[in-house]
Amino acid sequence: MSGDLSLRCRFAQAVVREAGQNAAEKFRRRSELKFESKGKQDFVSEADKACEEFVVGSLLKAFPEDSFLGEEGGMQNAGGKAIWVIDPIDGTSNFIAGFPNWCVSLGLVIEGRAVAGVIYNPITEELYSAEIGCGAMLNGRVIKVSNTKNIDAARIGLGFSYRRPVDEHVVAVKACLDAGCEYVRFGSGALGMAHAADGRLDGYYEAHINAWDVAAGIVIHREAGGWTNDFLGKPDALETGNVILATTADLRPALSSLLLSRT
Hints:
This protein has eight helices and 15 strands. With 263 residues, it is α+β, with helices and mostly antiparallel strands. The chain has two domains: 2-142, Fructose-1,6-Bisphosphatase, subunit A, domain 1 (Fructose-1,6-Bisphosphatase, Chain A, domain 1, 2-Layer Sandwich), CATH 3.30.540.10; 151-262, D-Maltodextrin-Binding Protein, domain 2 (3-Layer(aba) Sandwich). The strands form three sheets. It has an eight-stranded mixed sheet with strand order 4-3-5-6-7-8-9-10, with helices on both faces. Helix 5 (189-197) packs parallel to helix 6 (211-223).
């Protein structure tokens, strides 16, 4: 499987890069795009749909035995041992508003395990990639999680979704600040995971997040030397999502106590 996995990883990087560059062209003329609301602060644009169709179509031609789970198209070609999990534009609200914090995220899950991932922000031209057992890369350079030891020197990403109570997020923010831990919110869970993997953040937490937001980030973060909770251990995590906490070994006890104990 290692050779087959490496082939998939290399192909996935090329597909995601092209998809991201296509999306960036639409970003530059976003005022012309049509978009619709899927719920509170949850939007989809024609760029999202076109990006997902391109990724799925490209991978399906190369790996017709694989399955595909996309944010916009749901499960396609079901029954494959390998499942590609796609967020065509993670951070659509940022995309629509003209903020550069969005990306294309593509993870590969085999037998309930995240084994490869690619996250690409075409505006900053940063491509994160990882294959299980081979380390994590940013534009071909090895990356590692931060070496922050103490919670009162840490800064983490805190995501939020209206699928969870607002008060729950407020409590999480207060718990971090009371512990001296700074926080940021970028509006992209995939980029939050990527920035935790390369040490810009000391962790990322969201009380509920969908699989397409983190399938790539989980393997990238772990291959960068970090720890995440067992997101895919929840039997229906691919379909319904789960809580995510990604951090370092040193900060895991404190952040788990502050955040996972409240979920």
